[in-house]
Amino acid sequence: MKIAILGGDGFVGWPTSLHLSSLGHEIHIVDNLSRRWIDTELGVQSLTPMDSIQERCRIWREVTGRRLSFHFLDIAKEYDRFKAWLEEHRPDAVIHFAEQRAAPYSMKSDRHKVYTVNNNVNATHNVLAALVETGIDAHLVHLGTMGVYGYSTIGAAIPEGYLPVGIETLGGETVQQEILYPTRPGSVYHMTKSLDQILFQFYAQNDGLRITDLHQGIVWGTHTEQTRLHPQLVNRFDYDGDYGTVLNRFLIQAAIGYPLTVHGTGGQTRAFIHIQDSVRCIELALGDAPKQGERVRIFNQMTETHRVRDLANLVARLTGAEVAFLPNPRKEAEENDLIVQNDQFLALGLDPIRLQDGLLAEVVDVAKKFAHRIDRSRVPAVSAWTKDIAARVDRDP
Ligand code: NAD
Ligand code: USQ
């Protein structure tokens, strides 16, 4: 297949590009490199040294003989260029990673909220409008988030996207319907993914676009089979207070002797998936495209759930790190349970990688190797969800 990978220079997009290229697909990475600019804005850098995207593609060619094409383009701001690009390349599938993906970054200030909404909602809508206008019947695979469901404890498993409801008619009969699971986003970033869902629903119904939305949990780890092939193919690894995700942060903190930064009681339960499984799920979803006229296909792309304080204790046991319970800069439930259905990927043959000491230790080793690149002052998470929380967190030692 000819596959366009929008956001293919990012943490999940890069290993996905390599994985699908190694399977023989023709890969076109489309990216505006905004993630690299945000590193500059924040004064941080990936733990792992990343080469330019052009250099990464050159190395891949050298190592495997396979070609990756890179196209510098802003999906959100350059609609006409993007439409012309699609018209010229006519991909069989489009994988859409090209959004601002950090919840803390999206809550930093009003400017960051506005940027996140403009970038994410426009990027998604531009892709949809351009597919309709060009008449390209590509399968669109979007990376969404488990966070659209919210984290209120309901004592029932979260289904894959849709909720069956019985509605009583005026005649007193009960009619069964399936609706999109009600969204309850916990940040402006997560809210944009909720908005994306409505855009998908409309375009699938109105124009027959074939769309798969992957509600992904928190991705951890760094290497995949392909990124290991050469030091310059290494994946990015975010550790800072905005972009670093919880488990990867705990692992680098352990590596540099920084107390593990648990927010609040650490009673938050979240869904997780290893980066290797993430790229495998995308491959499986690609191979199982919906038909024209079918509703949006939604998968829960996660393999296990964990409570934050349990993860901290696990990493502490493994490495001897200390655990610090800090005031929570976010507005979120202090304690929640989470049960998630993920039967569809299991049925397609996913054999999940579970959190295991070996893999955790491997990430700590990566962190130790590049520890000299870590700026400790960028480790704390300082982005507060509300002005009240900002004032409170500031006063706390
Ligand atoms: P990332 O920030 O590392 O990568 C996103 C890429 O998209 C970057 O290379 C960026 O430059 C590019 N991009 C952003 N806006 C663009 C635009 N307007 N035009 C062109 N390119 C643009 O993020 P990631 O961690 O690789 O996540 C990829 C996707 O997966 C995101 O949509 C995210 O919401 C979703 N996701 C990520 C995680 C996770 O834990 N990392 C978990 C669940 C879902
Ligand atoms: N947390 C800590 N300490 C830290 C960092 C985070 O206790 O140092 C807590 C947070 O308060 C939160 C939980 O850990 O309760 C998860 O935070 P996170 O930053 O790992 O994850 P999140 O903000 O939800 O976002 C990440 C990705 C996002 C993706 C989402 C999947 O950045 O792109 O959509 O995970 S999910 O969480 O399933 O919605």
UniProtKB/TrEMBL annotation:
Pathway: Bacterial outer membrane biogenesis; LPS O-antigen biosynthesis. InterPro entries: Epimerase_deHydtase (IPR001509), NAD(P)-bd_dom_sf (IPR036291). Residues 3-293 form the NAD-dependent epimerase/dehydratase domain. PANTHER family: DTDP-D-GLUCOSE 4,6-DEHYDRATASE-RELATED. Belongs to the NAD(P)-dependent epimerase/dehydratase family. This is NAD-dependent epimerase/dehydratase family protein. The lineage of its organism: Bacteria, Pseudomonadati, Pseudomonadota, Alphaproteobacteria, Rhodobacterales.
